[in-house]
Design a protein that fits this description.
six-stranded mixed beta sheet, single chain, binds adenosine-5'-diphosphate, seven-stranded mixed beta sheet, binds magnesium ion
């Protein structure tokens, strides 16, 4: 985080801005570099990394660095891992609040705007605020340099950078101005969540939902907790007590590894529970309601997504011989069906290393999930390529150690396959495993199992570098995240709307950077996709998200290998080969 160029002080910055007042906008270029401030009692350094070309372009990129003494955060608030992540998210929110959440001032274009990437409900690693091992705080933000038309507004710029900015820094990035209880709540909550998640494997559980958790959200587009919701209460037979470092013992429902079925009437909270489990791979901010809902960090929510593309996916565990010339063991299509897309999503998640699949009937292909006795009688096995998931779900756990949590309110076919059956009744879970098993025994023989062959160990794939092309027009590299669920990459647009565990556009940006880095370093036509993911995630683990880009970027957020894989797998130009086809 240190800069070697010679620095100037805030007085000189003010003088410069006065001098260029009324000049053409390009005069702002002289701002580039480092400026040392000692205003409002908070010494800090301002680094101007990039100056916008005109008032209507993307605002200028800047950083402030506050030394450990001036920032004043005690060591325990930034121990590496969940605590530091939480502190950084908290400081980013404060900065954003103090900056008026990006509101602009008078003048043209982005004039007078100061904005920082604003965290949502999840506590993710982020590049907008970094705290290093000594407690030095760096915030990365953008500022719209003020203009009247295309002329420099020197006075307004001095006001923005020499008065408003120091005020924001003093109010947002110093421990002294923070509410200490709030800082503790953020760091402790995140640390407790990480501890709960870590306890899952030892207990033989896929997930844990604490008593009192609030799962529903305000709306489909508002991720904040629903007020007046029925708090979660665990059924006694599934209740466990786990120890947390800060909150002490916490009780709640443990979802055992294996096959878990969530049943219940419509509108009784099944999907809400499953969504909370999907988000349980992330930590949440205090007050979210899901702070103590944690899931196996490798859990992947999979769904049907007809129309998506697939590149050489070995669907053979789930799909047999396909009509015409389609190869089920090397499935390439620009338009997958409901069942083949869901099969592809599962095989791809396994390839990326998942140990837990999350499936909701609302977004699943029925013919992929079940095939009942009567349909077995009517349509001969030879006519049906789909090997239904119901015949694989136990095998997945027993042979590959992969658990499944499945919402299925409309069919009892899975009763006999499930280790645990949870009924949601008016938003409260009830353990109905015994009754479901009794019903399954009474109906034994209604349908015949169609399983053949191993379920895991689908053939691995080697991506071909030429099929991942970031060029667009004359630009060598062009990408843009249009939101969390759409990534423009080169000439392509990657549709991520079915990737339910993407929660932040910053993740999508970071994934774009990761694909580029992968393309530069690891995607060589020899390494398998799994090896490429491994390398990229190791780079991020070692160097943080900054390892992904050549310049300091303030708007990246932490992502998992599964979402990175999901993006690559949905790139329509992607081509792969089998490891045995790699030339010697
Ligand atoms: P299902 O999948 O069983 O049909 P959903 O999970 O979609 O039901 O939930 C139906 C509605 O109930 C949603 O609007 C959801 O926000 C609301 N809801 C879910 N859980 C709770 C709860 N614990 N308290 C209050 N409302 C809830
Ligand atoms: Mg539902």
């Amino acid at each position: 985080m240190t800069e070697s160029c010679d620095t100037r002080d805030a007085g000189r910055l003010e003088a410069l801005l006065e001098r260029i007042d009324g000049s053409g906008y390009r005069a702002y270029r002289d701002l580039r570099g480092a400026w040392d401030f000692d205003r409002a009692g908070t010494p800090f350094r301002l680094l101007v990394d990039h100056v916008q070309a005109d008032p209507f372009a993307a605002p200028s990129r800047m950083r402030v660095q506050v030394d450990p003494d001036a920032a004043g955060f005690p060591g325990h608030t930034f121990t590496p891992g969940p605590r530091r992540r939480a502190l950084c998210n908290y400081l980013a929110l404060r900065f954003s609040d103090e900056a008026g959440d990006g509101r602009r001032g008078p003048g043209s274009g982005t004039s007078g705007r100061i904005a920082i990437d604003r965290p949502g409900q999840q506590v993710l690693e982020r590049t907008c605020v970094l705290v290093d091992d000594e407690g030095r705080v760096e915030a990365r933000f953008v500022a719209g340099l003020p203009a009247a038309g295309r002329r420099v507004l020197g006075g307004a710029a001095a006001d923005l950078l020499c008065r408003r900015l120091p005020g924001i820094v003093a109010a947002a990035l110093r421990c002294e101005s923070c509410d200490r209880d709030e800082v503790d709540a953020w760091t402790r909550t995140a640390e407790d969540a990480a501890a709960l998640r870590q306890a899952l494997a030892g207990g033989g559980w896929s997930a844990f939902v604490a008593d009192g958790a609030v799962l529903p959200r305000r709306s489909g587009v508002d991720d904040r907790p629903l007020s007046g919701a029925v708090p979660f209460r665990s059924p006694p037979s599934l209740r466990v007590e786990l120890e947390t470092p800060n909150a002490g013992p916490v009780t709640g429902m443990a979802v055992p590894e294996g096959v878990t079925l969530i049943v219940g009437g419509g509108f009784h909270g099944k999907s809400t529970l499953l969504s909370a489990l999907a988000r349980g791979v992330y930590d949440h901010r205090p007050g979210d309601g899901r702070e103590r809902v944690v899931t196996d960090p490798t859990a992947v929510a999979v769904r049907a997504e007809d129309g998506r593309s697939t590149a050489g996916v070995d669907l053979s565990p789930f799909i047999g011989d396909l009509p015409f010339d389609h190869d089920n063991a090397f499935f390439c299509t620009g338009h997958a069906s409901g069942s083949t897309s869901q099969a592809a999503a599962i095989v791809e998640a396994l390839e990326a290393g998942t140990r837990c699949l999350l499936i909701d009937e609302d977004t699943a292909a029925t013919n992929f999930m079940i095939r009942d006795g009567r349909m077995q009688q009517l349509v001969a096995r030879e006519q049906e390529p789909v090997r239904p998931f119901i015949d694989r779900v136990r095998q997945l756990h027993e042979e590959a150690g992969v658990s499944t949590v499945l919402v299925m309110g409309g069919s009892g076919d899975y009763f006999g396959e499930a280790d645990t059956v949870i009924a949601m009744e008016r938003y409260e879970p009830v353990d109905v495993t015994g009754r479901a098993h009794a019903i399954a025994r009474a109906h034994k023989g209604d349908r015949t199992r169609e399983t053949t062959g191993p379920v895991a160990g689908a053939a691995s794939r080697v991506p071909l570098p030429d099929s991942i092309d970031p060029r667009r027009g004359r630009r060598e590299v062009s990408w843009k995240a249009m939101g969390p669920f759409e990534l423009r990459f080169g000439e392509e647009s990657i549709d991520l709307s079915a990737v339910a565990q993407l929660v932040d556009v910053g993740q999508t940006r970071a994934i774009a950077e990761a694909i580029l880095r992968g393309r530069e370093r690891y995607i060589d036509g020899r390494r398998s996709l799994a090896q490429i993911l491994e390398r990229l995630m190791a780079d991020v683990a070692a160097g943080g998200l900054d390892a992904l880009s050549s310049r300091p970027s303030g708007d990246l957020a932490g992502f998992r290998r599964f979402e990175l894989a999901a993006a690559l797998n949905r790139l329509r130009t992607l081509r792969v080969r089998r490891p045995e086809e790699v030339p010697a």
